[in-house]
Amino acid sequence: MAATMYPAAATAASSTTSFLLPAIPAVRTVRCSRLPLLPPRSSSSRFSPASLKALSESSRVSLLQTRATSSDESSVDTSEIFTDLKEKWDAVENKSTVLVYGGGAIVAVWLSSILVGAINSVPLLPKIMELVGLGYTGWFVYRYLLFKQSRKELATDIETLKKKIAGTE
After folding, report:
1. Torsion angle of alpha carbons 19, 23, 28, 30, nearest 10°?
2. Could you report the per-residue pLDDT of 118-157, keeping only the tens digit for each?
3. Secondary structure percentages of the chain, helix, strand, coil, to 5
4. Could you read off the pLDDT of 43-68 as tens digits, one per residue?
């Protein structure tokens, strides 16, 4: 009785299926990736067994030539580094000031990373900031690096800034 009750639904489903089937082959023709086929192997190959043997021997020789060796010159003595740091820390008179400046620098880097992340999430703002950076770079190159006189001026400005930071001025 159920089969006699729903024959129209079965015909509707089959007609819908036949209606949708022509669209499916278009989807099936799209391939995600496929490796290229190799040409058929001919009886006369380009490489002879002797040339293949020479190739494998030359690759072995090149492997032997590129191996790195460890030397004592590049080893790092951690105890020497810690003693140097301890001597420098003991030479510092105002340890609390150094700690405050160091902590402030860490907080500033953390806050700036949060700020850059917030700016980066705004849709158009990162591209505008890139343009501003490119414009400033162009201006800096034109102003300070392009001509000899302006390079000398930049060098003197850097030297005076070094002296101010070091406290010798």
Report:
1. 180
2. 988 988 988 999 999 999 999 999 999 999 999 999 999 9
3. 75, 0, 25
4. 555 555 665 565 556 555 554 555 55
Alpha carbon of residue 168 to chain centroid:
41
Compute the distance between CA of residue 6 and CA of residue 1 in angstroms, rounded to an integer: 9
Angstrom distance (rounded) from CA 160 to CA 166:
10
Instruction: Say whether pTM exceeds 0.85.
Output: no
Count the residues in the chain.
169
Q: How far apart are CA 14 and CA 21, in angstroms?
A: 10
Distance separating alpha carbons of residues 165 and 147, to the nearest angstrom = 27
Among candidates 118, 120, 138, which has minimal Cα distance to 129?
Answer: 120
Which positions ≥6 away from 98 have C-beta within 8 Å?
92
What type of residue sits at position 155? A
Nearest to 141 by CA among 159, 133, 158: 133
Calpha distance 18→47 (Å, rounded):
55
Distances in Å between the alpha carbon of 123 and those of 111, 112, 117, 129, 159?
21, 19, 12, 11, 41
Give the domain ranges of the chain: 83-121, 124-169
